[in-house]
Design goal:
single chain, mainly beta, four-stranded antiparallel sheet, 4 helices, 32 strands, about 10% helix, globular
């Protein structure tokens, strides 16, 4: 089982450039798939006979029973900000980063995308410009590059509660923010000048910052690190660090999010397989979400809060996603969604569908009500046992973005 480590181990790996052995990556669990059988079945196909096909299906385990409805006629319409959406297609690839693109963030209203990379930079992209380019085009340049971190950037989030503010967390233990000024409705980005961007540094963590999330309606931001600490920030105050929450065991915090239906609470995922829900105002623990009995202590890699219901969807290192009822603390459903660990999960703004990605290089769209896979596509190439690292829906427009260990980000429409 993979684990996230702190700054001391991280710095050593960065200095000797052994990327394939870097301990701050999240190695996938040892897969129980017989790849020799898989390769034989794929190449032989029907000619290999029923024995080959049966062996292939057996190696897939629970995934062999998943029905993927890759048929536009059977794909239900749903409304997503910009209108009715039937089918997702690759629109553009962005290949400007020099290392893994660890996380993504969309502007809540405008067609802007932010990417956070282990090359220590963040970049902003004009989605509208990409939308007008040819399919799969790679000639799109970022509008602006945010520099300042001295270590890999591991997470980012975007807030518009007090103007456009981009927050990021890094292996250098800091949280940084960039306040971008605008003229009217137009944001000004000069790639050769920093005059249009105000930068700030937030210090409070002592280890690598793995997760960050912004409040749905205020400038408040929360972050978590590999030491298990959660920091609550408000950059409008003289002392931005409002409060901290410490973990009561040795597990590391891996992901964090506000409950969208109850934004005075946050959910934090840990390497111990637990998800803890805290009340932000007094930092009290309100509930702990646990896996089913017999599942072991599988690391929580990602989580997402439903926009209208008090449920959380979380992705784990055992290739499963689990759906929890926050009010009761009960596990509502769990199922295998990938043949390698689930690295990221996102829920569409309407709350009807959710997307998952994993280290098996696949992006999958699921119907939340029926728990069926409605679309599947290969999205990124594998690198050092990692593949797709993040998936996000645009909050108000019909876009999906993914990022991966192959140093690229991709836009779907």
């Amino acid at each position: 089982m993979g684990s996230r480590v702190g700054l001391r181990e991280l710095v050593g790996s960065v200095e000797d450039h052994t990327l394939d052995k870097s301990p701050y990556r999240i190695p996938p669990s040892n897969s129980d798939i017989d790849w020799a059988v898989l390769k034989k079945a794929l190449f032989q196909g029907i000619d290999g006979g029923e024995d080959s096909l049966f062996a292939f299906q057996s190696s897939l385990g629970e995934l062999a029973g998943i029905q993927v409805t890759n048929d536009v006629e059977n794909f239900d319409n749903y409304t997503l900000g910009g209108g009715s959406k039937r089918w997702w297609h690759l629109k553009c690839s962005m290949k400007i980063h020099l290392d893994s693109v660890r996380q993504l963030a969309f502007h809540p209203e405008k067609p802007l995308l932010f990417t956070a990379s282990e090359d220590t930079t963040l970049r902003m992209w004009d989605v509208e410009k990409m939308n007008n380019s040819k399919k799969g085009g790679c000639d799109v340049e970022p509008n602006y590059t945010f520099r300042g971190h001295t270590g890999p950037v591991l997470c980012c989030t975007c807030s518009v509660a007090d103007g456009l503010v981009l927050f990021s967390g890094s292996a250098d233990t800091t949280v940084r923010y960039w306040r971008v000024y605008c003229t009217g409705e137009v944001y000004i980005f000069d790639p050769y000048s920093d005059d249009t961007v105000e930068e700030g540094v937030l210090e409070g963590h002592e280890e690598a910052v793995w997760g960050i999330a912004s409040h749905p309606s205020t400038i408040q931001t929360v972050s978590c690190d590999s030491d298990g600490m959660v920091c609550i920030w408000d950059i409008t105050k003289d002392n931005p660090l409002e409060a901290t929450i410490s973990n009561d065991d040795d597990s590391s915090a891996t992901c964090i999010d506000y409950l969208r239906n109850e934004p005075d609470k946050i959910a934090v995922g840990y390497t111990s397989s637990h998800i803890r829900v805290y009340l932000v105002s007094d930092q009290s623990l309100t509930s702990t979400l646990r896996c089913e009995e017999g599942s072991g202590e599988e690391q929580v890699n990602c989580l997402a809060s439903h926009p209208t219901q008090n449920i959380i969807i979380a992705g784990y290192n055992d290739k499963e996603i689990r759906i929890f009822d926050v009010d009761s603390g009960k596990l509502l459903h769990h199922m295998t969604t990938h043949i390698e660990p689930v690295s990221s999960v996102a829920i569409d703004p309407a709350g009807v569908y959710f997307a998952t990605v994993g280290h098996d290089c696949s992006l999958r769209i699921w119907n939340l009500e029926t728990k069926t896979c409605t679309q599947e596509m290969s999205a990124h190439q594998k690198r050092y046992d990692e593949a797709i690292l993040c998936v996000r829906f645009h909050p108000s427009q019909p876009f999906i973005a993914t990022s991966g260990a192959d140093s690229s980000a991709k836009l779907y429409q």
